[in-house]
Amino acid sequence: MAKEKMLQFVDVDRQMPEKRAADVRAQDFDEIYAGYAEAKAEEQASRCSQCGVPYCQAHCPLHNNIPDWLRLTAQGRLQEAYETSQQTNTFPEICGRICPQDRLCEGNCVIEQSGHGTVTIGSVEKYLTDLAWEKGWVKAITPVTERSESVGIIGAGPGGLAAADALRRQGVKVTVYDRYDRAGGLLTYGIPGFKLEKPVVMQRIEQLEKGGVEFVQNCNVGEDITFQEIKEKHDAVLIATGVYKSRGLNAPGVGAKGVVRAIDFLTASNRKSFGDAVPEFDSGELNAEGKKVVVIGGGDTAMDCVRTSIRQGATSVKCLYRRDKANMPGSQRETQNAEEEGVEFVWLSAPKGFTGDPVSGVMVQKMRLGAPDASGRQSPEVIEGADYVEEADLVIMALGFEPEDLPTLWNEPELQVTRWGTIKAEFGTHKTMMDGVYAVGDIVRGASLVVWAIRDGREAAEAILNDFNASAKVAAE
């Protein structure tokens, strides 16, 4: 009977949850996809082919047991499906919303390769976890025994929170130090509500707090507390700061008023959604309303900026990217959503400088794709004599992020970094060269995906516990 529930991809077409009309969703910051109804979730899960080598699972950084929880969903065993999904994923409701499934699990689905359209894995995952919260299946963190050890975690983003969850469940005392007034890192202040509504994040923070995780907010390490003080207070320290230093552009006029960083623009918008007082937004400095907006960049952050600008009431929104659509680093699904909402993409275009102060335009160089570079992607080349000026009242730089100079900021020269400025840490254990200090997420990898940070946090928690147990064993002998 169970087998008959599956392999329905020949008879059942792929169907995403209903997406709100572009002209409607562009008026607010609510998520654009509705949730599945139970029958639709079961139907879409039944399309899974239950293949012997599940490429969806292999290409998921967390190696989620996707075929298993799809089968359980198709059979209507929804609580079991949720419990299976959360065994390997600390925040499945977040991954279901913001993971680039088209590049990971869904992009490697076997039935997608055979022309039948991928299973809607992310949407089923989101459905299961939202249902779990609604039904009370998400259990409070209640360690069986309390341990004597404590861990200090620097950074309350996805990597730090995933480690905090795993450590606290084993009875370890956990304190999270974070520079912002709310935990969540980029989940809270970097990603717009139309991709990840903030109550979804806040309920997880609340769960961690109720489970005994202590949060120290508005805490800048190196200013409000030294790294050494944190190290002395705890048996182990995990660095999970992420990368927040925006890549700049060395071009004429870059310092003009109206040329802003993506992180500042998105943080102001997200703060506004919480009801905070945001003077830079109210003054118009970080507000796109009534403006001609140009966003520079082609990644997911650039997509967040263009779609936020539309919702704030910009008169026009253009995205400049130096390669073509096929070579964009961001999600194709996000690009499509942006186009539907009225964003104009100006492909093969790069900024040369800016006119006016306040800014009045972007000097644009037209490009063509030449020979492949070291990564295999075609390198953009300037087309001489094809420059022009793109009118703009607000220019948002979304060129990516780099690590801050932590050894200098924290006065810790022993903290070893790579030539890119990321922290050196062992693969798998996430140990740094400093005794009792570990590091995870973007501060080790460079700017990457939330799902990789979650994996790193879970792995580091396991390594820290192993080291605690080994030390306890030696002490007992």
From TrEMBL:
Ranges of residues in domain Dihydroprymidine dehydrogenase: 25-136
SUPFAM superfamilies (UniProt xref): alpha-helical ferredoxin, Nucleotide-binding domain
Keywords tagged on the record: 4Fe-4S, Iron, Iron-sulfur, Metal-binding, Oxidoreductase
InterPro entries: DPD_II, FAD/NAD-bd_sf, FAD/NAD-binding_dom, GltD-like, Helical_ferredxn
Upper classification of the organism: Bacteria, Pseudomonadati, Pseudomonadota, Alphaproteobacteria, Rhodobacterales
UniProt cross-references to NCBIfam families, sorted A to Z: gltD_gamma_fam
Keyword Iron-sulfur: yes
Protein name stated in the entry: Dihydropyrimidine dehydrogenase subunit A
Entry's Gene Ontology molecular function annotations: 4 iron, 4 sulfur cluster binding; metal ion binding; oxidoreductase activity
FAD/NAD(P)-binding domain residues: 151-457
